[in-house]
Amino acid sequence: MGFQEKILEGKFNFIKDKNTYCEEFFKLFQDSSPQGNYTFNSEILSRVETGEFLKIYVDYELSYQFEPISVRIKRSLGAKKSTERYVINQKDKTVHYSLNSKLGSGEFEKVINNKFHISTPSFASNLAMTQHRKPDPVHRTPYAVITSPNIWKYEAPFIEGMVHVELVNSEPRAIKMRTGHEVQAIHFKLFDEDRLSNPHGQGHDFYLSKYFQIPYKADLLGGISVEIEMLKNFQVDHSYLFK
User: Fold this and answer.
1) What average pLDDT values come out for the chain (243 residues) when binned by 10 residues?
2) Which segments of the chain are extended strands (E)?
């Protein structure tokens, strides 16, 4: 891998009952080569009930067309540690998955010919799939998603599923942040089911920026909200978009 240029960096706060219980610091890089790959680096910190800190590090590499290439997820909580990896062979479309941990390691491999996204704990790359294929402006757009049931030890292979994205408004609209800032964002809804199977499903509200579909804000089911606190653009004089 050659030189990587830092494009963006920022911070998210995860909020419930008006209290911030989790933070995510993220950076987005691009390889300096022509049609260079993108890489999201995220560090997620959350204090659990025991008082210990759960630390999660996510490295998510995507092609210049935002197709997954590799993912690494490292978790630590006290003495517990695990590392998950996905490596996609671009020629034969084989997805190689592994989890390494003292509590139990394992691996799994499968050929997946259709386009897919890999779900990770990183909020910054949550809707990166919409960079690869734009949502239909009229109908809910289905996206294939790979998820893993494993956290601290290998228990089962990865799972293939679907999510659906609906475009609520095609033009940016002003939304108010807790910090008092007002930003222009595109409103999407994310559903676990399509309209036919659950026509009245509420879905999760996402408000996306124009910067690589990184969310400014999300209102999730269960009373959880996520808001960006800081976003810095290194492509425009290293300027803060807001802070």
Assistant:
1) 84 93 96 89 92 95 95 96 97 96 97 95 93 87 95 97 91 88 91 63 89 92 92 73 59
2) 4-16, 19-31, 38-47, 53-62, 68-77, 80-88, 94-100, 106-111, 117-118, 141-147, 159-167, 173-176, 182-191, 204-208, 215-220, 224-233, 239-242
